[in-house]
């Protein structure tokens, strides 16, 4: 086993010289558009599955159940169909598998080519979905979309964290989540418009227009520069130094470059990152890579965003009104994400995690109580429009809490705490867990809504309590810490320090004693 001891900065929390250059800002803006494809799909799938022409053509049993529920039937169960949820959630199984392969592509060829591969594959899925004539074509198209999402979600957060100056890393990385929310909002607007197209073919346009955000990331990735970290990892030290000078806007990059070189040495010493990330010294990072995306999905947010139109139909809104309600929640999601962008590097990650958790808890409890009071266990009741509007207001407050906390931070924190030698593998684990949980929640939601009724929202509330306690005790503050100096954070933490300081002979991050290598 290779032993790598790397040099230290005296403080362990220094910032390096440099500034946010226009070059870096534009590169991060282009890379962040990888979030558009994920967000557009989240928004478009829920809206399409609430359109009657789409349901009657591909899911006739759901269409009949919906018509029956309109005549004083059970509002909780009218969309209960495993085939319908398979259409939505098949993407996430494909994304899970693809993210595991994407780690090898990202490490061997660089972050930009993973983004390009994701964009091309997503484009192919758009063609199949827009031209679908049966459920098999729909699901095959969703699988290709999932491969694209897996590659993009694996590479984009890593790229943003590596390009950004430490003091602005949170803001630039949160651009990924901002693009996701923009994609959701635009998709909701498109659904609202295409649902009104005469002839019942608007759903095809909704699905096919996913090619537009896919084209952004596909073409844009061809013009992106490689990150200095990736260039060093792939054996191009002089090119890496030139790139570092360019992205920082200064020639005074010696200290940061030395730290990157030391991290590169550690990366080269690790020939099996998937095996090494399981070692005890990487336990804190591995827990973050698993727990944070797992908890993000257990907030219940994708239930709201996937099925917002379906939920609003359940609450008694008509088809057009339910799509407009989804537009409103999508707009709230997008605007509230700006709060995180402008505050994450000022107030830190933990403050946003904790405030957002409290707000989401109140929202889930309120939605469950409102639905329980009106629909009860039977699910048979006429819901006054004013009452339904009240539920939408509560959902918007819940979505806002998510949008400035667990939404962006669940991508930011895992990507910034990983050391270079296991960073692609660690980000792949983050994406895989996120996609697995997204699949599980999406596949189970309509079934559990039918069985648990309004109590389902109290189940999500319990998960929010658990994840907030996890943040309180186990998630350290990483605001302003250089990405290659993150070991100091773990060494100072009351619990995680036992994993990173137990063996003083094996220091694998920046900020340690030494000068010996290999």
Give your account of this protein's structure.
It is a single chain. It contains 24 helices and no strands. It has helices spanning 22-32, 34-48, 52-58, 60-70, 82-109, 111-130, 135-163, 169-194, 202-208, 211-222, 228-233, 237-248, 254-269, 273-276, 283-298, 301-314, 319-347, 349-375, 385-403, 406-417, 423-452, 455-474, 487-492, 497-500. Helix 2 packs parallel to helix 8, helix 15 (283-298) runs antiparallel to helix 20 and helix 16 (301-314) runs antiparallel to helix 17 (319-347). The longest helix has 30 residues, at 423-452. The N and C termini lie close together (9 Å).
SS summary, helix count? 24
* Silhouette: globular
Work out the number of β strands: 0
- Assess the beta-strand content as a share of residues: under 5%
Order of helices and strands: HHHHHHHHHHHHHHHHHHHHHHHH
Q: Span from first to last CA?
A: 9 Å
Largest sheet: none
Arithmetic mean of pLDDT: 82
Alpha-carbon Rg, integer: 23 Å
Bin the helical content: over 70%
Weakly predicted, low-confidence segments: 1-13, 503-518
Q: Classify the secondary structure makeup into a structural class.
A: mainly alpha
């Amino acid at each position: 086993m290779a032993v790598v001891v790397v040099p230290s900065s005296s403080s362990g929390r220094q910032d390096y010289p440099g500034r946010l250059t226009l070059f870096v800002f534009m590169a991060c803006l282009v890379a962040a558009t990888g979030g558009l494809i994920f967000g557009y799909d989240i928004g478009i799938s829920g809206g399409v599955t609430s359109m009657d022409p789409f349901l009657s053509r591909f899911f006739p049993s759901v269409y009949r159940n919906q018509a029956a529920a309109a005549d004083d039937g059970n509002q909780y169960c009218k969309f209960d169909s495993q085939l319908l949820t398979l259409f939505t959630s098949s993407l996430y199984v494909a994304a899970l598998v693809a993210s595991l392969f994407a780690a090898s592509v990202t490490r061997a060829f660089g972050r930009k080519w993973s983004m390009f591969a994701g964009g091309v594959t997503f484009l192919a899925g758009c063609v199949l979905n827009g031209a679908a004539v049966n459920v098999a074509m729909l699901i095959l198209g969703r699988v290709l979309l999932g491969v694209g999402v897996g590659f993009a979600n694996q590479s984009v957060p890593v790229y943003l964290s590596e390009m950004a100056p430490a003091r602005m890393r949170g803001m630039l990385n949160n651009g990924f989540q901002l693009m996701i929310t923009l994609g959701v909002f635009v998709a909701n607007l498109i659904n609202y418009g295409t649902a009104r197209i005469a002839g019942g073919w608007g759903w095809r346009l909704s699905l096919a227009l996913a090619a537009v955000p896919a084209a952004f990331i596909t073409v844009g990735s061809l013009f992106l520069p490689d990150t200095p970290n990736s260039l060093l990892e792939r054996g191009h030290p002089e090119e890496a130094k030139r790139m570092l000078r360019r992205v920082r806007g200064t020639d005074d990059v010696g200290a940061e470059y030395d730290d990157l070189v030391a991290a590169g040495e550690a990366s080269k010493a690790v020939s099996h990152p998937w095996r090494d990330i399981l070692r005890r010294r990487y336990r804190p990072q591995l827990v973050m890579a698993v727990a944070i995306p797992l908890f993000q999905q257990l907030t219940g947010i994708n239930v709201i965003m996937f099925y917002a139109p379906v939920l609003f139909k359940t609450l008694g809104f008509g088809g057009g009104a339910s799509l407009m309600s989804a537009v409103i929640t999508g707009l709230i999601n997008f605007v509230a994400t700006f709060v995180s962008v402008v505050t994450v590097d000022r107030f830190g990650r933990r403050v946003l995690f904790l405030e957002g958790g409290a707000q989401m808890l109140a929202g889930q409890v309120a939605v469950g109580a409102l639905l329980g009071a009106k629909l009860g266990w039977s699910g048979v009741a006429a819901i006054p429009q004013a009452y339904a509007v009240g539920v939408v207001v509560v959902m918007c407050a819940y979505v806002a809490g998510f949008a400035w906390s667990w939404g962006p931070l669940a991508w930011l924190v895992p990507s910034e705490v990983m050391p270079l030698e296991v960073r692609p593998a660690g980000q792949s684990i983050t994406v895989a867990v996120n996609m697995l949980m997204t699949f599980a929640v999406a596949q189970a939601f309509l079934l559990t809504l039918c069985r648990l009724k309004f109590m389902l929202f109290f189940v999500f509330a319990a998960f929010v309590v658990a994840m907030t306690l996890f943040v309180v005790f186990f998630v350290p503050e990483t605001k302003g810490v250089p990405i290659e100096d993150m070991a100091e954070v773990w060494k100072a933490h009351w619990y995680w320090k036992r994993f990173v300081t137990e063996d003083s002979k094996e220091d694998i991050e920046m900020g340690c004693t030494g000068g010996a290598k290999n």
